[in-house]
């Protein structure tokens, strides 16, 4: 069994629409910090100088959103109302999603070379024909758009391709519950959607993939990476368990493909 990392890093040195703050406490600073904490909370006095090199443990503190790096969007991310039956009387949060959704056979669709904007259902059907496989219920569909090439730059947030409403509905009609992309969003860039709305007056062009999640329960994986390393469009298993953040609309994941090839 071979493991292929499908995740993008959380990297404070790259360009982000929402800044990442990554503060690092060195092992020596960590020793002093622990000594102070033990004294303050337990009344225990301890001299860090007795430790090897005066060091104990490093400590990283990060300030970031749950939509930074590779992450899974929960149904509650799409809105406060669910138009589908739910035992919670509301859309589920990320900590409430079934684990089996996130360990399933994968299907990778190649959308590289598509212009900025959206692709429709016909484009997905052509890709099904090309790979000789139609996604089955509960399979995890991954969209390889090539957006990873500009990750860490402003273009990652403006130059990519997403799904239109019909393409999203097609995958959901097939029983897909998790759709992933290597782009910033499963929808088109903001500029493209707003431009289309101003041109047509059609509200349906505004975040159609996300708003589909108000009518039908499903999850998205955004900001995947390394999809070009997959040996084929099928024949692998995706493992993408989201971090269990209570009450959150998303959770980070270290997405991995498992394959015998």
Automatic annotation (TrEMBL):
One of its GO terms (biological process) is L-tryptophan catabolic process to kynurenine. This is Cyclase family protein. GO terms for molecular function: arylformamidase activity. InterPro entries: KFase/CYL (IPR007325), KFase_sf (IPR037175). It comes from the Bacteria. PANTHER family: CYCLASE-LIKE PROTEIN 2 (PTHR31118).
